[in-house]
Amino acid sequence: MHWILSRTLQKPNLKLMNRLAHYLRMCYRLTLNADKQEEALWKEMKKFHLRQDYPSGIYEKEKTISATLKLTEYKSETFSYSLVFGQYYCNVRLIRSYPEELSPEIFILTTHLNNILIEGGVSVDTEEQCVEYTIRKDILVTLLYPGFIYERINRHYKVAKRLHQAFTRLINENEAPALIVADILKSLEKEEKESD
To answer: Can you list the residues of the chain whose pLDDT is less than 70?
Structure first.
């Protein structure tokens, strides 16, 4: 019996050690001032993006990373990941320009989409006639949980693809905003049932 106990005590529990290391890292990061938190998250973001297999550029001075990702089979867009004013931003331009006569429908669709979005928001720039999707999170929350960088990027990308498709249907097929949103809600409901 003594031999079994001493053998068990000598063997390190890797799961417990990893949890302890994560907990200590979180405690340390909580003690950092805002500038140091931003610096630590910027370091994590760069490390994450350098490991990825997509074209990206890192801009130190602006604390921005730009990555080119596909929105559709034929269209790629620049996704930006930035640290600004104590916030972590994920941003993409969904539509580069839209016909001016569709402005009312663009605003209606934007309002409907913002009502169903769980995270982030769609915005319309009337001067440039473009549509963007942005997620904004506190730096500390993103810094404390290492998987948040990937999770935010992945969620932002998936939602952006769906939003781009919605605006494309409006612009190219002249489909009513209410029908587009109804289709999105149906597909979300179907996905939810399939995941259960």
So the answer is: 1-12, 22-23, 29, 196
